[in-house]
Amino acid sequence: MTDRFNLYHYASPATFYPLAGRLIPWFAALAAIFGLIGLYIGMLVAPTDFQQGEGYRIIFIHVPASWMSMFIYLVMAFWAAIGLAFNTRLSGMMARALAPTGALMAFLSLWTGALWGKPMWGTWWVWDARLTSELILLFLYIGYMALVAAIDDPRRGDKAGGLLLLVGVVNVPIIYFSVKWWNTLHQGSSVNLAKSSMAEVMLWAMLLVALSFWMYSIAVAFARVRTLILERERNADWVKAELAGDRP
Amino acid sequence: MHNIVFAVIARDLRLALRRPADIASAVFFFVIVVSLFPLGIGPEVDLLRKLAPGVLWVAALLATMLSLPRLFADDHRDGTLEQLALAPHPLGLVVTGKVIAHWLISGLPLALIAPVLGIQFDLTADALLVLTGAILLGTPALSGIGAIGAALTLGLRGGGVLLSLLVLPLYIPVLIFGAGAVDATVSGLGGEGHLSLLAAMTIAAIGFAPWASAAALKIALE
Amino acid sequence: MIYWNSFSDFLAMGGYGLYVWGSFGVTALIMASEPLLVARRRKATIARLKRQLRAESRTTDA
């Protein structure tokens, strides 16, 4: 009973706003620590890959960025489902706050994938199943952001965006498997970006960077959601007090 | 229960037939886009035969998109949509009827004209048959998925462009298997597997999409 | 412990320097500028809301 109460307590924007403010520095610090250790191991300690040479080090950011781009979309769909089911105000704002970071992760995944592909495959772009799916995922992010931006009423925007996310998340596996199938029909399987035969150090470096990206995304999304809360709740007394008190 | 679906289909068809020019312009759009490709690429028959499935399918996607913004907009403007949403029968059934009507108006004519265009690309009789079958099987899914986009963008400024931004990525599986069916037939592998997957997608889309569209319409009408 | 013999080896990345540092550079740039943009938007929003608040209180006072 108390758990339930707490959950609803923190689901209210008025209580989440200061909580997020307190948590942001911690997540940012964790992101920095994990990132530094991960990059130290990945860039300085890990040996070279005998097949791919030093170029393989790109995967230390490519793979975490790809993971995060997919994970953030799932988290957004999760918030969308909560928002549509329980009509909570915070959920829609969380989905909105995550979208730009997810889109950037998808872009980074494509960018690093292209820079990895040039020396390995000899071209910047290959219609590889994973790269193609990542591109479509970027389109889905852009579609969500465009829809939410086009709707003036924020509550309608939250709900419509949430519905689009749910439709999208149902379609993502279908899109992925159809692209994969299309890919195997049209060309032989290419070298995989992440070879399974990775040394343990490399795996550790990749996981640490992934953790760092995760913490980074939470920190940025919290910062963004705080601004959204202020805008939405500008007529609430606590926001007026917050603004009048001149606290950051 | 099903009377409402048929009533909506009959009503939408009657309304559409009052303005046959709209149906014709979508079909001509399809014809023109397909005919532009040989002009852009060159008249080499081998190349055209290879490109035909993809070109025809992409043109079909775009042609279906054209009539989507109007799917709910007219009913929204004159208040019919609000009445339908308040009526006792589920809104999902109404949307099912509208989706089927949309397919009869926009998808079916494309399937009928596609073989003629396929001849321009020197497709064999087998391939033409599969092409027609694939467009017949796949376009209902396009109408269904498109209805979700049309409902989400109802009444928004720049709705048409936004609609294509939302819907085109979701059309990709249909594009892949639709064009793949023809490709597989041309290369002698047989397109049955593709066609059955297309049919599965259409069944899923017709089953689920109207209910998602109905939810989106309720959000838009709030 | 450290795999590299010299700093220039590290920079060259065995001939893959352009690709590796191109990837890491753009990632660093994006991850540095995104928080800055978020912070700037936040400042602008707070300033705007404060203006609105002052304008409202003036109209209610009068």
List low-pLDDT spans of chain A.
none
What general form of chain A does the structure show? globular
Helical coverage of chain B, percent range: over 70%
Helical content of chain A (DSSP H or I, runs of 4+) = over 70%
Structure characterization notes:
Chain A has eight helices and no strands. With 248 residues, chain A is mainly α. The radius of gyration of chain A is 20 Å and the shape is globular. The radius of gyration of chain B is 18 Å and the shape is elongated. Chain B has 222 residues and is mainly α. The longest helix of chain B is centred in the middle third of the chain and has 30 residues. Chain B has one domain. With 62 residues, chain C is mainly α. Chain C has two helices and no strands. The chains are: A mainly alpha (248), B mainly alpha (222), C mainly alpha (62).
What distinguishing features does this structure have?
A: 248 residues, B: 222 residues, 87% helix
Could you give the topology of this structure?
The complex is a heterotrimer of chains A (248), B (222) and C (62).
Chain A: H1 2-11, H2 13-45, H3 59-86, H4 89-121, H5 129-150, H6 154-186, H7 200-232, H8 237-244
Helix pairs in contact in A: 2-7, 3-4, 3-6, 3-7, 4-5, 4-6, 4-7, 5-6
Chain B: H1 2-18, H2 20-41, H3 45-67, H4 70-77, H5 80-86, H6 91-120, H7 125-152, H8 159-186, H9 192-221
Chain C: H1 7-12, H2 17-61
What does this entry show, briefly?
With 248 residues, chain A is mainly α. Chain A has helices at 2-11, 13-45, 59-86, 89-121, 129-150, 154-186, 200-232, 237-244. Chain A is globular, with a radius of gyration of 20 Å.
